[in-house]
Design brief:
Blueprint: H1 4-29, E1 46-52, H2 59-66, E2 76-83, H3 89-96, E3 99-103, H4 111-125, E4 130-133, E5 138-140, H5 144-153, E6 158-165, H6 172-194, E7 206-209, H7 210-215, H8 225-235, E8 241-250, H9 256-288, H10 291-301, H11 305-324, H12 330-354, H13 357-363, H14 367-377
Parallel strand pairs: 1-2, 1-4, 2-3, 6-8
Antiparallel strand pairs: 4-7, 5-8, 6-7
């Protein structure tokens, strides 16, 4: 017979687990490859903006990768924004062939301010039709601009290409990150593109037209500036289109201390946006009858996968213990098993899309350690500014 207190606690665990897993199940089922649109001409001009804060170790590699783009060389410029740098970033970027803009500001520090500065200068010159953002630690596919141009010529104003891991085989940690990004970036973005929703901006490998910047000026200065601006676009009725055939791959840290710093910064920014924008998005979804805003709100509220895993594991263990003591019905146990199954399917699909192979599948055995590490990271002091993450190549 059901015990009221036991059922009440199970409900606290089951409601968020069930809602999250149903959402992830829908996205997983819709994650087949999307149809590639037919490429048009090569008429558009792009400013590729590379925000860089003390990136001397990687900036040359990034610029050289961008120079190999399959796009007329006189139709794109590489603009490196050397923001508050005290190393050789500017000199190395210039030597590699980039246009360098040095920016110094004691108070307005961070990637958002660097991007706003670059976008404003690009707009004032009125040379480019659109801007593309590529992080300094990245390499890109040769069709990056072609993929963005195809969408813009078809009526899009914001595009996000796939954002993956450059050094996926460096360690078990980077392989797990590749699996996580395979799920979070590729799986979710494919499904949203199929549903005509916004895939959101992921901070790296995104493009917006200058016509859009004139309509929605870039003023995103939080620690999660990419998510923030993607939300602003949704609130005015614009979605970010996903270009699955192009990619940017960024170097991911394998050192636990550096990775922890980066993770705290990301999740601190996300928590700020949950407080500031969730209610606004739900109101926008209601008043505008906007599925885009509704999905952006849900995406903001869906916790990181580590927290979802803890929630589902807690539900399964508690339901099993109570069922063994005959305190709850078996339906609770089946509900928890279903949530575990959905989560497993989501993760395995992310592994399949990550391309890390059999070793990555074996590394999933380490996932509980990764979850514990993430929980420990979130107990540490919050990051409040743009601090360069130490990488393997530093």
């Amino acid at each position: 017979m059901n015990h009221p207190l036991a059922v009440g606690f199970l409900l606290l665990l089951a409601v968020p687990a069930l809602m999250t897993c149903l959402y992830l199940l829908v996205l997983t089922l819709l994650s087949a490859a999307t149809r590639r649109p037919t490429e048009g001409g090569q008429q558009l001009r792009f400013d590729i903006v590379v925000p860089a804060h003390n990136e001397a170790a990687v900036i040359t590699r990034c610029v050289r990768s961008l120079q190999q783009l399959n796009w007329p060389r006189d139709s794109f410029r590489i603009l490196v924004i050397a923001d508050n740098c005290n190393d050789r970033t500017a000199a190395l970027a210039h030597a590699a062939g980039a246009h360098v803009i040095e920016r110094e500001h004691a108070a307005m520090r961070g990637k958002g301010y660097a991007l706003e500065h670059a976008f404003r200068l690009s707009g004032d010159e009125a040379w480019a039709d659109a801007v593309v953002v590529v992080d300094a630690d990245s390499e890109v596919s040769s069709n990056l601009l072609a993929a963005c141009a195809t969408r813009i010529e078809s009526g899009a104003h914001a595009v996000q290409v796939h954002y993956g891991v450059l050094d996926a085989q460096a360690s078990w940690r980077t392989r797990l990150m590749a699996i996580a990004l395979g799920a979070f970036h590729r799986l979710r973005s494919r499904a949203r593109e199929r549903l005509k929703l916004s895939c959101g901006l992921r901070g790296n490998g995104w493009c917006v037209s200058h016509a859009l910047l004139a309509h929605v000026p870039y003023r995103a200065f939080s620690l999660a500036e990419d998510i923030e601006y993607g939300i602003e676009l949704g609130l005015v009725g614009l979605r970010v289109h996903y270009a699955d055939e192009a990619w940017v791959n960024a170097e991911m840290v394998s050192d636990s201390t550096a990775a922890g710093t980066q993770r705290r910064r990301w999740e601190s920014g996300r928590m700020q946006l949950i407080k500031m924008r969730t209610r606004v998005l739900f109101l926008g979804a209601w008043h505008q009858r906007s599925a885009v805003n509704l999905d952006l709100a849900i995406d903001l509220l869906i916790p990181p996968l580590a927290y979802v895993a803890v929630n589902v594991a807690g539900l399964a263990v508690f339901a099993a213990l109570l069922f063994a003591r005959d305190l709850v019905a078996i339906e609770w146990l089946w509900l928890s098993v279903g949530c575990v199954g959905v989560l497993a399917a989501y993760v395995l699909r992310g592994w399949q899309l990550s391309g890390v192979g059999a070793q990555g599948l074996l590394d999933l055995a380490r996932a509980p350690l990764f979850v514990l590490w993430k929980l420990w990271v979130m107990l540490q002091p919050t990051e409040t500014e743009w601090v360069r993450t130490r990488r393997r190549t530093s």
